Amino acid sequence: MKKLLLCLPVLLLLLLCACGEKTPPAASKAELPAPEALAAELQASGAFAEELVLTENDVGCFLYGLVESDAPEMRYYFSSGAVADEIAVLPCADDAALEKVTSECATRLDLQTQLFTVYKPEEVPKLEKALVLQRDKTVVLCVATDYEKAREILDKYF
Questions:
Q1: Which of 16, 98, 107, 142 could staple 131 via S-S, CB 3.0–4.6 A?
Q2: How far is the CA of 150 from the CAs of 96, 110, 119, 154, in angstroms?
Q3: DSSP for the chain?
Q4: What's the pLDDT tens digit per position in 17-57?
Q5: Would you tell me how many other CB atoms lie within 10 Å of the CB of residue 43?
Q6: What contacts 24+ positions apart, CB below 8 Å, involve 151-158?
Q7: Pairwise CA distance, residues 140 & 41, whole Å
Q8: Which of residues 95 and 28 earns the better pLDDT score?
Q9: Cα(51)–Cα(68) distance, rounded to whole angstroms?
Q10: Dist CA 143 CA 83 (whole Å)
């Protein structure tokens, strides 16, 4: 009887623990598409004021302060210059490149904000809301006209 009395509290404790609320696992994100596919999906969403044009990597690297070896599969899409809209998809080569790319994206946004403050101030709010997202070693910079549409796409992956 004494053994039963000693085991009863342990048994009750085990039962209480088993009845605890289970937290559902976090929703997993979709697999990241290739840079071109992600940019195409963003553009198809209607989030941009005009069609963005794929730019040669050397131009993008110059504007972002990068070298191609930082993100060999990088893709840059720019507007005509009349609006601030742009997309950069930057799958980084390694952790050092990831750190550099993240820093240079912030620098790019700062410089664009300074430029558009003088050139076309109505574009500055877009730059202030710019999305810089990271998943694993991929960084995406997105300056859009309609952030709800851009976010709808990017939330699937980031």
A1: 142
A2: 28, 21, 25, 6
A3: -HHHHHHHHHHHHHHHHHTSPPPPPPPPPPPPPPHHHHHHHHHHTT-SSS--EEE-HHHHHHHHT--GGGSTT-EEEE--SSS--EEEEEE-SSHHHHHHHHHHHHHHHHHHHHHHHHH-GGGHHHHHT-EEEEETTEEEEEE-S-HHHHHHHHTTT-
A4: 444 444 344 468 999 999 999 999 999 999 999 999 999 99
A5: 18
A6: 152/45, 153/38, 153/41, 153/42, 153/45, 153/47, 154/42, 156/29, 156/30, 157/29, 157/30, 157/31, 157/32, 157/33, 157/38, 158/29, 158/133, 158/134
A7: 13
A8: 95
A9: 24
A10: 10
If you count them, how many residues does the chain have?
158
| Cβ neighbours of residue 58 closer than 8 Å, sequence gap 6 or more | 68
d(CA 23, CA 65): 44
75 near 84, Cβ under 8 Å? no
> Which amino acid, residue 43?
Q
Beta-sheet pairing, 86-91 with 131-135: unpaired
Q: Where are the domains of the chain?
A: 33-154
